Amino acid sequence: MFSEEFNVRFYETDALAHVSNTVLVGWFEAGREPIFKLFTLELDLQNWPLILASYKVDFLEQIYYGQKVQVRTYISRIGSSSFDVYQELWQEQKKCATGTTTLVHFDFKAKKAVAINDEIKATLLVNSYPE
């Protein structure tokens, strides 16, 4: 599991006094940064090796300003060139949201998916969601 913690910033709240639904996608992306570094340690945007194929977010509880949030990131599926990232957002010991993202190892010059090497697959597997 990868874990990141964030402070909820005032501007991330909405008129209903809870965190806006649009903010979670950004937190989930930031929580995937350790995975990005497996593919490009320097996060080199000129040679980016991943493409987002899909994502889904489920909202379970409201999230509030003034309390930190934690994003827990796991790998839930590994294919030959793609993998699914399952994430949970926690605040005050409550699971407030979940998300699943499909990422594809991608060669932008050739415009096609490429196989994930065995070393990266092994690291992804270590961070699999416990079933």
TrEMBL record:
Q: Name one GO molecular function term.
A: fatty acyl-CoA hydrolase activity
Q: What SUPFAM superfamilies does this protein's entry cite?
A: Thioesterase/thiol ester dehydrase-isomerase
Query: Taxonomically, which superkingdom?
Result: Bacteria
- Its Enzyme Commission number(s) read 3.1.2.-
Q: Which UniProt keywords apply?
A: Hydrolase
**UniProt keyword annotation of RNA-binding present:** no
Keyword hit for DNA repair: no
Q: Which InterPro entries match?
A: 4-hydroxybenzoyl-CoA_TE, HotDog_dom_sf
Q: Name one Pfam family in it.
A: 4HBT_2
**PANTHER family linked to this entry:** 4-HYDROXYBENZOYL-COA THIOESTERASE FAMILY MEMBER, NOVEL THIOESTERASE SUPERFAMILY DOMAIN AND SAPOSIN A-TYPE DOMAIN CONTAINING PROTEIN (0610012H03RIK)
Q: Which family does it belong to?
A: Belongs to the 4-hydroxybenzoyl-CoA thioesterase family.
Q: What is this protein called?
A: Acyl-CoA thioester hydrolase
Gene source species: Paraglaciecola arctica BSs20135
Its taxonomic path starts at: Bacteria, Pseudomonadati, Pseudomonadota, Gammaproteobacteria, Alteromonadales
Give the gene symbol. ybgC
